[in-house]
Each structure stands twice: as C-alpha cells, then as structure tokens.
Amino acid sequence: MAAKAASILYNVMKKAENIVNGSNYVIRNLQPSDYLSLLTMYRDFQPKNYTMGLPPTADTLRVQWLRNLLHEKLNLVALCGNRITGHASLIEIPKTDLCEYIVFVHQDYRGLGIGRKLTEETCRQASMLGKKKIWLMVESSNQAAVRIYLHMGFRIKKVYGEVYEMILEQD
Questions:
Q1: Torsions phi, psi of 17, nearest 5?
Q2: Which H/E stretch holds residue 11?
Q3: Phi/psi of residue 128, each to 5°?
Q4: Which candidate, 49, 79, 104, 133, has a CA 20 to 30 Å from the CA of 38?
C-alpha cells in the first residue's frame, strides 16, 4: 500500500513539474522537513502584511500561524531548486464541506505561473478530499490573482470595500 501511495505521489509530482525562466519548479505536498525553509520564505516575504494582515509580521505570530497551518490536511509548496517559493493551504471549516484557501508566492517568483499551479493543484486535491466549496478573500487590486480565480471557476460572492469574497463550488 505504501509503495502504491509513493508511486501516486511521484506521478503527481512529475505532472506538476514546470519550467520557469529556465529553472524547474515543482509543486508538491508539504513535508515535515520543509518547515524551516517555509518559515524562511515567510520571513523574507514582501510586502509585509501582504493581504489582510497575512502573513503576520511579528516573528512569534508568524511562527504560531505557520504551525497552525501545518495541522491542516492540505499544504502545498512550490520549489525552485531547494528553495520554497510558494505555499498554499486549505483551512478546514468544521462540520461543513467548506474550506478557506490561502496562497502566497515569494515576491521574486510572482508572475511566473506558480500561484496558478498552486491553485489548480489545491483545487484538484480538495475535490479528492471531498471539499465541495472553497472560499477565499482577495484584494481587488490583485488583478492577477482575481483573473486566476475567475478562470478556475470562482465567483465573487460579496464585495467589502476593496476586498472580494470569492467561492468555488466543485461537483
């Protein structure tokens, strides 16, 4: 059984491998050994408080926030070489088929398709986990992200000033 799971994971990783400006990047599930590299990405992340106060700027809050995220069922990372360049997570909302989606791409790697690939793979795996509704908040000024979400089938549910509440309802 473990060999079959390893084979499936290998095939998923191979399918998610991409070329970005001549560099390979891979989208894969977060592994326990990735924690320090992921924390480093968030410590270096710009701009601080990128969207709605996330990622947290204070190191103690950032560490706790990240530890809380690591308890979620689905965490994906994007790697260019050995460097984590992006992170996506689904946050379960208890007793529902709804989950919250967050995604962050390091500023040096934005505009290269990494956020789109993280979003596609997260939605695919969420469907496999039985999550029918994916909810997110995005600033309306983040037009690249809004375009990706709309293309993926998310719809704008509500508008709060400069922030869109969006939802994807999967079959």
A1: -75, 140
A2: helix 2-16
A3: -65, -30
A4: 133
Report cis status (omega within 30 of 0) of the bond before 55.
yes
Q: What is the pLDDT of residues 70-104, one digit of tens each?
A: 888 899 999 998 899 999 999 988 888 789 999 99
Coil, helix or strand at residue 58? coil
Neighbours of 60 (CB within 10 A): 8
Residue matched to tokens 């995005």:
138
Region class of 70: left (phi > 0), else alpha (psi between -120 and 50), else beta: alpha
Instruction: Tell me how far apart the alpha carbons of residues 129 and 19 are, in angstroms, rounded to a whole number.
Output: 28
Residue 70 structure tokens: 């690591």
- The whole-number average pLDDT for the span 149-160 is 96
- Non-local CB neighbours of 116 within 8 Å, separated by 6+ positions: 148
* pTM exceeding 0.85: no
Q: How far is CA 55 from CA 26, 41, 120, 130, in A?
A: 22, 11, 21, 27
Using the 8-state DSSP alphabet, how is residue 55 labeled?
A: S
- Tokens standing for 62? 């950032």
Full strand arrangement of the beta sheet holding 133-139: 18-20, 23-29, 74-80, 83-92, 98-105, 133-139, 163-169, 155-160
